[in-house]
Amino acid sequence: MEETKSLIEKLRGLKYQNMYNNDFFLTWEKSDDELFSVFTVADILRKMRENNISTRIFDSGLGISVFRDNSTRTRFSFASACNLLGLEVQDLEEGKSQIAHGETVRETSNMISFMADVIGIRDDMFIGKGNKYMHEVSEAVQEGYKAEVLEQRPTLVNLQCDIDHPTQCMADLLHIIHHFGGVENLKGKKIAMTWAYSPSYGKPLSVPQGIIGLMTRMGMEVCLGHPEGYDLMPEVEEVARKNAKESGGKFTKTNSMREAFENADMVYPKSWASFAAMEKRTALYGEGKLDEIKTFEKELLAENAKHKEWQCTEEMMKLTKNGKALYLHCLPADISGVSCKEGEVAASVFDRYRELLYKEAGFKPYIIAAMMFLSKVKDPVKTFEALKSSNKPRFSGK
Amino acid sequence: MEETKSLIEKLRGLKYQNMYNNDFFLTWEKSDDELFSVFTVADILRKMRENNISTRIFDSGLGISVFRDNSTRTRFSFASACNLLGLEVQDLEEGKSQIAHGETVRETSNMISFMADVIGIRDDMFIGKGNKYMHEVSEAVQEGYKAEVLEQRPTLVNLQCDIDHPTQCMADLLHIIHHFGGVENLKGKKIAMTWAYSPSYGKPLSVPQGIIGLMTRMGMEVCLGHPEGYDLMPEVEEVARKNAKESGGKFTKTNSMREAFENADMVYPKSWASFAAMEKRTALYGEGKLDEIKTFEKELLAENAKHKEWQCTEEMMKLTKNGKALYLHCLPADISGVSCKEGEVAASVFDRYRELLYKEAGFKPYIIAAMMFLSKVKDPVKTFEALKSSNKPRFSGK
Amino acid sequence: MEETKSLIEKLRGLKYQNMYNNDFFLTWEKSDDELFSVFTVADILRKMRENNISTRIFDSGLGISVFRDNSTRTRFSFASACNLLGLEVQDLEEGKSQIAHGETVRETSNMISFMADVIGIRDDMFIGKGNKYMHEVSEAVQEGYKAEVLEQRPTLVNLQCDIDHPTQCMADLLHIIHHFGGVENLKGKKIAMTWAYSPSYGKPLSVPQGIIGLMTRMGMEVCLGHPEGYDLMPEVEEVARKNAKESGGKFTKTNSMREAFENADMVYPKSWASFAAMEKRTALYGEGKLDEIKTFEKELLAENAKHKEWQCTEEMMKLTKNGKALYLHCLPADISGVSCKEGEVAASVFDRYRELLYKEAGFKPYIIAAMMFLSKVKDPVKTFEALKSSNKPRFSGK
User: Fold this and answer.
1) What Pfam families does this protein's entry cite (chains A, B, C) (predicted)?
2) Is B76 part of any domain?
């Protein structure tokens, strides 16, 4: 419990006040203090749960989830985070709902929010759409709150959009921080965020974009590697460049996986579709040209297949710092010979890092809960001290 | 909190005892005192939530929902109401379940109710079916309770049937009461419940029927307007006539939208299918004549299209009391040029009333919670006073 | 409350310590003391709920359900059990999730379990699969727990596999124990577990197998009756034989329904597919031979139809002890003239036993809750005494 105490002390020193009653869309919209507040609150919530102290701050209330793409881990992470704080999850299934019947976003957002404290949205499939949709929802409930339609303003958590995947990337970073024994030890370290071959098509850009947008703030050398044509959104690369400069880190690019892995402390090899491709696909959907989409996707798969050498093999790993770089992935990974014939990573590499990968994923529920906590709780330090002293058990059968 | 105190005093004066361990099917099966008890309890629950006082009377227990038609707002209203009182929602999805496999209503009702405190049902598509089904469920659990199969008798809330939509219409009425500063101010006011054109087919009759069945009890002039052939169920019109007489109000009918709007204090323009049409359609379904249904629905759409002038335009609104009647709708509305080419209401009219419409909808979760509260709580006044004095916060991070 | 007290005393005398942090797969993997602990805890939980004492031992936490086959009653029983103890249900819908996308069981099991206290799985359709899958999940989370990926080890409850249906059969047995006034009165009684005709195809073997595997431990004569070719898994019959010997009971087999019913104290007539048939079908699925499966299922239905005389008629019931045997079924039953033209049981027989059948089903939520309780709570007696003395109401509106 000493640990919890010192974490609360740490929190006391940070500026997180702007997060109150606010949303979490993109990490680069937040100050360093705000990011570290999320990490600190996540660690406190975890410590308290490990010590069987209830962190249930809501006696009742709803956490609403909107998933516009399949999801297991994010769905369960959100549900776990809500449950940890005392919110009941209500999933807005747009199929079931009347949204299909031409209801406007503004209206639906208010209709589902009368007793909603938080809203989590995943909408990552179409460039220029997901983040925009989240802002529409946020503005709608803000209006509703101002107009006293809503008694509370539900705060939004971006569970993955077309631009960023903040809950994933911050879970990745918290994992790295713990792994290397503190954020101060990250300065000067090299992380390779590289493309990797996958037989499955059109994975979102949000993870690589989120990684270069976040890791460049920690004074690290962030090396983005991908075959020609697999570029990310230029504006996000610009963010990475700016962050690197400010943090005293580096942001480099290469079209060689070997070069990216060379002497890296961490590697994050993962497949994605190119920005240009996703944009074209989005346009085709917009025009409802389904046949053309099919043809186009075939082309893209064929293009992917030209780059099968972009695989995280044992040989590639040998290139990294002492051959022992920390392998990172958001999961699920396309594992060669396991989940597919040829994929992002060799089975032997993946196996060696499995437990670490699971631990990496384990930070996500706490990151989400921390984002909610900081957006809802007026005086986090006071609330944590109250929880600590009341010392109510999460499970009374221990 | 003074307000809460006086509301509890008000409740003390009302006769609601017959609602205990009872269901809520149709508003006209309830006494005036019982309706006003629902309104009063709804207001108390809302005030307490606004003052961050927990109204969680259930430490555990299930609220079961059965939706036989798509729904966003009602689904979330029910979930919010259950959550506010401490019940966890379990949705009976008849697709997933074995009901499809020829299980009887009696059996299913008991099988899902071993730990169920309330059941909410929406079944509004077929004339003569929905309300009947709810009664079958109610009788089944009553039997089960008597036979000690069930430890508690789950009470039913009608979330919309073929005859009435009590949670919607009572939310509408509570909105009106607050808008006009008290029920006493409603006497003599005119409300126009009119048909309106919609390109979508076969909307239920439950809202217009519920409105004429309920508003006629408040001493208002309720004017029902629709094109020839769009009649409601005759027995419900009979109820409205009777209510009007008893309450000193009026129930009038017209085939002219202009006449209905003339000098109205409130207007409720909404599309519905005719009773006769719904009956025929129900019969065709019964006989499984799917092709004939298609043809029939085409005919009905064509018939609808003959009445496009039944639209709530600015010009129509000018006819109302000082051109400023309160526009009402259960949402979602078919807004001309927004959700459809031509529909129930002009965009400019809808926009002007948007916030009020959202507030109208906001009463629904509290109406549902109040119905549950009065059906489960033995001594509501005592329970409210206990909640007030224990003063447990709903959210302890405020 | 005296009753609760003596039940707690009874529990004190039983050896259940090995159930702590353990799973529940098959009844014959558990000691008699462990089975009776489940019954005793189930009775205590029920008594406490009847006396409006909260048994909510979890302030937060998830209970995860995985249903690989349709289910109403088991789904609601699991949800009720979780809710009774304070866990929120999260359903892993494999359709929605990314499991379809080739994710391994090991990975998914950990990804959904970061805050999961229990996992309930139903997987009964394919011989040699369901129970195996449950063990894979159990090993996966055990590994994750050891590796500190998971803070707690979620314990598994078998909600029906290809071999056993422990929650059903133990609910059946607890019902019998209460019906006959104590387990000691079961010695020497005869129970007929027989096949019965059903027009629907391929029902799982888990119920008849679970029944012969469990009831043979109570010193009863368990008579398994079915037409030639409808054999159960040989290893389970072996278990039954062994149990009967040890308990001083009997395990007999016959191909005559009349012989099985002859002088029986209890009858459990229920349809199932033969072990050999299920095995072949599983193989065909494995080979993706969908057309052959269709043909094969037709053959099996034709085979079924040869045994329509296997029906629980009034005449058959006359053969039982004083014509008054206790009729048992897991529900839903195929009732002749009700849910099908010809089926497992005559309507008049079913009607006479309906209330008892519903009560039988009513034990299931408590059996599941008891299994969870014993797998999670370190000192059940202490915890029950604490719950009793704190005396927190489940519902504070009574």
Assistant:
1) OTCace, OTCace_N
2) yes
Domain that holds residue B102: 2-163+365-390
Which partners does chain B have (≥3 C-beta pairs < 8 Å)?
A: A, C
CB-neighbour burial class of residue A337 (10 A; exposed 0-12, middle 13-18, buried 19+): exposed
Domain count, chain C: 2
Residue C159 lies in a domain: yes
Chain B residues lying within 8 Å of A61, measured CB to CB: 83, 394-395
pTM of the model: 0.96
Give the CATH number of the domain where residue C189 resides.
3.40.50.1370
Q: Are C115 and C171 within one domain?
A: no
Distance (Å, whole) CA B11 – CA B378: 14
pLDDT of B218: 97
Q: What is the ipTM score, two decimals?
A: 0.95
Contact check, Cβ <8 Å, A339/C110:
no
Question: Average pLDDT in the A149-160 region?
Answer: 97
Structure tokens at C57: 């031992």
Element (H, E) at B190: strand B190-195
Residues linked to residue C327 through DSSP beta bridges, in sequence order: C267
Q: Please give the full DSSP string across B207-248, using - where no structure is assigned.
A: HHHHHHHHHGGGT-EEEEE--TT----HHHHHHHHHHHHHHT
Q: Which residues share a beta bridge with A345?
A: A312, A335
CA distance readout (Å), B391 to B1, B54, B365:
11, 7, 22
Is B159 found in the same domain as B171? no
Residues of chain C with pLDDT > 70: what percent? 98
Residue C97: pLDDT band by 50, 70, 90 thresholds? low
Q: Minimal Cα–Cα distance from A72 to chain C, Å? A: 5
> Per-residue pLDDT tens for B363-384?
999 999 999 999 999 999 999 9
* Alpha-carbon distance C168 to nearest alpha carbon in chain A (angstroms): 26
Q: Which residues of B touch A101 (CB under 8 A)?
A: 70, 200, 332, 339
d(C-alpha B14, C-alpha C63), whole Å: 42
Token pair belonging to A397: 């059968």
Token readout for B111 is: 């099988």
Residue in B with minimal Cα distance to C393: B59
